[in-house]
Design a protein that fits this description.
Blueprint (H helix, E strand, L loop, with lengths): L1 H10 L4 E5 L2 E4 H18 L3 E4 L4 H14 L2 E4 L5 H10 L5 E2 L23 E5 L9 E5 H7 L10 E4 L6 H13 L2 E3 L6 H11 L3 E4 L1 H11 L11 E5 L5 H10 L4 E8 L3 E6 L6 E2 L11 E6 L2 E6 L5 E2 L10 E10 L2 E7 L4 E3 L2 E3 L1 H9 L4 E11 L3 E10 L5 H11 L11 E4 L5 E2 L2 E2 L9
Parallel strand pairs: 1-9, 3-4, 3-5, 8-9, 8-10, 10-11, 11-12, 23-24
Antiparallel strand pairs: 1-2, 6-7, 7-17, 12-13, 14-19, 15-16, 16-18, 18-19, 20-21, 22-23, 25-26
Helix pairs in contact: 1-2, 2-3, 7-8, 8-9
Length: 442
């Protein structure tokens, strides 16, 4: 990455790379800082490190620096000190920025000629939405190739709506650098901060989860506020519903809307731009030489990838065979529809119920900003379907619950929500909804 950043900085010293409330940093400025930190890491003999608590700017600097000298970085999700210590012990990190070290500790190198890098490793944690995060081993060169950079004379402005501990956040960073674009850093990945940054800094391209977009759409759809001139809207990390796609098309009719199917294990596998939810059935017919192939086994999507992770931390290199994705699907005509994750199945009196079709029905109700369906314990059936709903301001609670019951009334009895609760927030991790039992307030 450092070579790319330095090349842009040399050819166009004033080209902005990072924009935030703290100011603007050019490619040349980021390159100079990263080279100094890379020299410091090399002189200290660091082989791997964790990042627990740094600003987005400093995190990007240390990632670029690490890639230049073959040091393996790993950005942690936001967590308390106890969990930080657990992650550091698990992944052998004696240096953890924000816990045992500061950027200033390594910001003292000469910034001159760097030693040759023995490799280009990076450890990326899985989202952990269904359990403890796993470490997946990658290489910067493979990640950059998968980011599909597109260079243009005038830089586009991308919003960083993911955390940098996420595969998707790393992909956005690499796409921006490879394309010589500009990355806008909001105060946090929360939708309200993302929307504020879109408006303040002229964002043109946004890649984010459907959960982010549901809340952002509600914040953006206000007649008294100007809309950002978005050219590209990308959704990934979760299944996308028709209601959300329709809302985005209505608000941004000129923007290209893409859905990306990707994971830290399998890489970026599919990009869909036809405006329909789910994947084209044709992805099952990919040839053997395709980077990623798919098949459906007992209702679960399986993948075989040549571009994903090299393996899990402290494990063998991953083979090129077929592996389950954890996504449950149904074939509907020429479409593969996502119905939930293997860990999210609700057993209602022996009937297996999937949450996503129910959430899709709830999402059609006016006044619903976002919803999460999950199983609630029941002494008779084992579980019943419950739904937590974030409602638009001023929505009448009783009327909304009645409308939700009507919208889901045509579903099979086991799928109809028996418990509807209006909450202030959903249980969200890394901008994705966790459905293993919501604990919202309200």
């Amino acid at each position: 990455m450092l070579d790319l950043v330095e090349a842009v900085g040399s050819a166009d010293p004033d080209r902005p790379l990072l924009v935030s409330d703290a100011g603007t940093l050019t490619y040349a400025e980021v390159a100079a800082r990263s080279r100094v930190v890379a020299d410091g890491l090399a002189r200290a003999g660091v082989e791997r490190f964790g990042v627990a608590e740094l600003s987005a700017v400093d995190t990007i600097v240390v990632l670029i620096a690490a890639s230049a000298v073959g040091v393996e970085p790993c950005v942690y999700p936001r967590c308390d000190l106890a969990n930080t210590e657990l992650l550091a012990a698990e992944f052998g990190h004696h240096v953890v920025f924000g816990a045992t070290a500061t950027l200033a500790d390594f910001d003292r190198g000469a910034g001159g000629e760097l030693p040759p890098a023995p490799g280009d490793p990076v450890l990326i944690l899985t989202s952990g939405t269904t359990g403890r995060p796993k470490g997946t081993r990658h290489q910067w060169s493979r990640l950059l190739a998968a980011a599909h950079p597109e260079r243009r004379a005038s830089p586009r402005r991308w919003l960083l709506a993911y955390n940098l501990n996420q595969y998707a956040g790393i992909q956005v960073l690499l796409h921006v650098i490879g394309s010589q674009d500009t990355l806008v850093l909001p105060e946090s990945p929360q939708p309200r901060h993302g929307v504020a940054a879109m408006r303040a800094y002229g964002v043109t391209h946004v890649s984010a989860t459907p959960t982010f977009w549901r809340f952002a759409l509600h914040l953006l759809d206000r007649p008294d506020e100007p809309l950002p001139a978005l050219e590209q809207i990308t959704l990934g990390g979760e299944a996308v519903g028709e209601a959300l796609l329709a809302g985005l098309r209505r608000l941004f009719p000129r923007a290209q809307i893409s859905q990306v199917y990707a994971s830290s294990e399998f890489g970026s596998s599919v990009s869909v731009t036809d405006g329909r939810a789910g994947l084209p059935l044709a992805v099952l017919d990919r040839p053997a030489e395709a980077p990623v192939q798919f098949r459906i086994v007992d209702g679960e999507l399986h993948a075989r990838s040549a571009i994903g992770m090299r393996g899990y931390y402290a494990g063998e290199d991953r083979d090129d065979g077929w592996h389950p994705t954890g996504d449950l699907v149904e074939v509907d005509g020429d479409r593969i529809r996502f119905v939930g994750r293997t860990t999210e199945v609700i057993n209602v009196g022996g009937v297996k119920v999937h949450p996503l079709p129910i959430e899709a029905a709830v999402a059609t109700v006016p006044g619903v900003v976002a919803a999460a369906v999950f199983g609630h314990p029941n002494p008779v059936t084992g579980a019943v379907v419950a739904v937590d709903v974030v409602a638009a301001e001023g929505t009448d609670a009783d009327a909304l619950k009645t409308a939700i019951r009507e919208a889901t009334g045509s579903l099979p009895p086991a799928q109809r929500p028996r418990r509807i609760r209006l909450v202030d927030n959903l249980d969200i991790a890394n901008s994705k909804v966790r459905r293993s039992g919501q604990e919202g307030t309200g």
